[in-house]
Design a protein that fits this description.
By secondary structure, the chain is α+β, with helices and mostly antiparallel strands. Helix content is 40%, strand content 23%. Helix 5 runs parallel beside helix 8.
Length: 219
């Protein structure tokens, strides 16, 4: 090998090592699972922090998102579907506590967590109303659960909207939103007649996707 060739190869190796070092130092990118739930983020962002949960590494766009994840990981990891609906209770507007299992009563339901102060929740109500009426003859029902702390305000709001589907208040020492790992609303859960959660939408709800999923479930 000539001296010139040797010099060229050495130079090329140095360039490759430099590029490799730059690539290793360059920030990784990914969709922050916390931003995905709270903001509906779908674009990859530079990973600035990470956590390991159940052997899986999750990357975040900020330390703030990492902290939120570390406090309540189950709210941000990909859901297991289908899975059984955990036991919880809801409350009627007259104060009676009711087991959710008796509300679902072996029929397909779409559970909608909402609040009077949640603009996307309110704007979705006409479509949910339409969806409820469209499939009611097949035993399907939308079930609204308000997480409002001011129960009378939620009651007046629901009455004003004249919702055709049943609406309840969240209740119990362990509220339904906590039992189902809800950290952001809108939050919608599709449950089949066997009491299995077959689909869910947290933080950002695509109503067309919901409609298609309901139509497929009820036939």
């Amino acid at each position: 090998m000539s001296q010139r060739t040797s010099i060229l190869l050495s130079s090329l190796l140095l360039v490759l090592l430099a590029v490799s070092g730059y690539a290793a130092a360059a920030p990784q990118k990914g969709i922050c699972p916390v931003c995905k739930v709270h903001e509906g983020e779908t674009k990859p962002e530079p990973v600035k922090a990470s956590s390991i949960y159940k052997g899986q590494t999750y990357g975040f766009c900020s330390e703030k998102c990492k902290k939120a994840f570390d406090e309540y990981p189950e709210a941000y990891i990909p859901p297991v579907l289908p899975r059984p609906v955990p036991a919880f209770t809801v409350k009627t507007f007259d104060g009676k506590e009711v087991p959710f299992q008796s509300v679902a009563a072996g029929k397909p339901v779409l559970v909608d967590f909402w609040a009077t102060w949640c603009a996307p929740c309110v704007s979705a109500m006409p479509e949910l109303q339409k969806l409820h009426r469209q499939h009611a003859s097949k035993g399907f029902s939308v079930v609204g659960i308000s997480i409002d702390e001011e129960h009378e305000k939620a009651k007046r709001f629901a009455e004003k909207k004249k919702l055709a589907y049943p609406v309840f208040l969240d209740a119990g020492e362990t509220p339904a939103w906590s039992t189902l790992h809800v950290r952001s609303i809108p939050a919608v859960f599709l449950i089949d007649s066997r009491g299995q959660i077959v689909q869910q939408w947290l933080g950002k709800v695509d109503l067309k996707e919901v409609q298609q999923a309901v139509a497929k479930l009820v036939g």
